[in-house]
Amino acid sequence: MDKEDKALLPRRYADVILPLPLDGLFTYSVPEQMACIVRPMMRVVVPLGKVKTYMAVVVRVHEDVPEFKTRDILSVPDDMPILLERQHRLWQWIAQYYMCHLGEIMEAALPAGLKSRDAYRPKTVRCVRLHPSMRSEQSLHVALYVLQGSHKQREAFAAYLQLSHWDGITGDTPPSDVAEVAYDELMNVSGVSSSVVRSLVSRHFLETYEREVGRLQETFTGTVEEPSPLSEAQQRAYDELLSQMGARKVVLLHGVTSSGKTEIYIKLIDKVLREGRQVLYLLPEIALTVQIMRRLQRVFGARLGIYHSKYSDAERVEIWRKQLSDQPYDVILGARSAVFLPFRDLGLVIIDEEHETSFKQQDPAPRYHARSAAIMLAQMYAHSHVVLGTATPSMESYHNAMTGKYGYVSLTTRYSGVALPEILTVDVRDLRRRKIMRGTFSPLLISSMREALESGRQVILFQNRRGFAPMIECRTCGWVPKCECCDVSLTYHKSLGVMTCHYCGRAYSVPRSCPCCEGTELMGRGCGTEKVEDALRELFPKARVARMDLDTTRSRNAYDRIISDFSAGKTDVLVGTQMVSKGLDFDNVSLVGILDADTMLNYPDFRAYEQAFAMMMQVSGRAGRRGERGTVLLQTRSADLPVIAQVVKNDFRSFARQVLEERRMFRYPPFHRLVYVYLRHKSDDTVEAAAEDMAARLRQVFGDRVLGPDKPAVARVKSQCIRKVIVKLEQGIDLEKARACMAGVKTAVVADRRYAAVTVYFDVDPQ
Q1: Which residues of the chain have pLDDT under 70?
Q2: How far apart are CA 478 and CA 631, in angstroms?
Q3: How many angstroms separate the CA atoms of 174 and 500, rounded?
Q4: Torsion-angle region of residue 583: left (phi > 0), alpha (psi -120 to 50) or beta?
Q5: 730, 667 Cβ separation under 8 angstroms
Q6: For tag attachment on the chain, is the N or C end more exposed, with fewer CB atoms within 10 Å?
């Protein structure tokens, strides 16, 4: 094509997504030299403002001339799209449903290395090979002769030849120029220093080069096994699952703790892989991936990929690229963010512990629920299904199953016929009134722990508060230190010697005296996991105690180490927050202690009982999973509450029936959808006025469906004052129209100059 023909071609433009919280797409000109390169779903580098550049994703390439002056795309870093069309459709659905921007979804979905021009660096290893002048047998013999006077260099050169599998004595051909001998390996085998190898390089016997290597474990070194045979009850559940999946896209597998749901998942995965399709296996917590990963690897080996936030960004980039390649992982095991990975042919999505609130993203946007997003993702693939597995279904999933929207399969017996644990209630209020109990542990719990430890069994203690004490209080005047930026008391962390805000992360030194009365009697109030750990070491000095909470699991390998040690019997007592309640499988645990059920029951939220019931049942399920029946001691000051009796009896149906009736009566999910409208500003007066205006405008549209504005439980975080407005939308309402109305109200409020600096955002289906 000559210059005249090129001049006749129309100018092309690209609409792109920028990783910013901004409305709409941005249009750029496609330079002539890039006209045949730029395609939808590819990354491009574009300018924004005077000096900034961003990595963007192309959505559409067209010839429609914009009504404004456009700027050119600067570069195209890839030769292939970085997204699949289905991923983009999922992004669009999330943006619409959760009322956020596509740029916010791009920011959350892509690993950092795919959003920056230089953040990702391929991993390389320094290698050694023969210099081109040495690549003949005659040259090698000459080299060995020349190096006779340089003992160290001859040793290093001979070591290289050995590692390259060449032996001049037998007359084998010389090693090829691509023989992969690592620089460090050569030094380790030869025992020489790097200066010796450098001398060989300078004398043109060897040369060095960098070889790109993957960060992923491409080969599985273990032995791949066939899936374990299912028990009679498991086989019935599996057959019923297949039957239900023939009629419905989503099926709820409601199986009691330790009923063997994972083995059913493995059988389902094996079936899907034999059909040549892919599987996404979602877990709510990174801690769970450790045990599940090992069980899946035993069956699927190197076909399994792991994806979660504890992996380095470079590793996540490589997994993303591998999923776009011709040899992707067949099974992806991951936490919430794995739903954004590219899948060419997704056949099955498993959402384990589907009731967990960890599947809901809180801050920052997009505030999506991975369960809902995964169901929507599966809808985009023909003949793809979703299995929701749990011992304590969420009210939404259970209601959908009971009304026929989802399929439903029940598994009511534990694997190998092991009985569910005996749950005993300990009335802490009565014990304290009679002065029988003073500390954290009731007499019954102490004696039960002693009995378990003496018999060689293990104990799990559940306390859903980390740190040493939730607050410090002056015994004289009652002063409590609070965060300067948030309306919360500071948690005392004894091991760190500081008080920490669990909302903004700021740390403060522990005062020696009260600033109000100058008293020196500052007492810790309440009990966290750190304090429980200390008390255990005093009560049972010979017991090996470990703690699993956010403070002890910050590093990538911390989960693995703690869980592995406990599984191997290197730890006698495991103290933890909700991390210990989620699907972990230990053989030797005979006793579980729930130290304070009331902190969960008294939380100011309409889901408090649902979440407390699930958490207590889940942590109870860690006891007696093999052999003898386990015991659970539930300490509470509210022993007469119906929910406590329902936990003791493992009576989920009665609990769900009662909760659903209350939800129907007071217009809460699953009968109504909730949208929380949050407003933030540094001035309390400004945010209050903006919230009143917002609520008034919303009432003009939605009437009595609007509640508030009110202050949330924590009304100031990171120096930002907060107000909340609740909108309740009944089932059957036009959600698209309702969302458009709410977005319009937001636009009108922030357009007021008084509220221009107020941040307004929506939380759809809050947890």
Answers
A1: 1-9, 117, 119-122, 166-179, 212-222, 287, 416-417, 556, 583, 625-627
A2: 39
A3: 64
A4: left
A5: yes
A6: N
Residues 243-258 as b or e (16 or more Cβ within 10 Å = b): ebbeebbbbbbbbbbb
Please name which of 594, 545, 551 lies closest in space to residue 573, comparing C-alpha atoms.
Answer: 545
Structure tokens of 379? 């809808």
- The whole-number pLDDT of residue 170 equals 41
Residue type, 720: Q
pTM (predicted TM-score): 0.84
Q: DSSP letters along 363-388, please?
A: SSS---BHHHHHHHHHHTSTT-EEEE
pLDDT of residue 539: 93
What pLDDT is stored for residue 7 in this prediction? 54
* Residue 348: closest CA among 246, 274, 280: 280
**407, two tokens:** 């399929």
pLDDT of residue 289: 74
CB atoms under 10 Å from CB of 638, counted, come to 15
What is the predicted pLDDT for the residue at 220? 58
Alpha carbons 37 and 44: distance in angstroms, whole number: 10
CA gap 372, 395 in Å, rounded: 14
- Cα distances from 561 to residues 111, 306, 505, 573, in angstroms, run 26, 17, 25, 15
Alpha-carbon gap, residue 680 to 690, rounded angstroms: 9
Q: Of 419, 432, 392, 353, nearest to 598 (Cα)?
A: 432
Q: Distance of alpha carbon 506 from its chain centroid, rounded?
A: 24
Please state, in angstroms and rounded to a whole number, the distance separating the CA atoms of residues 253 and 245. 11
Decide: helix, strand or coil at residue 480: coil
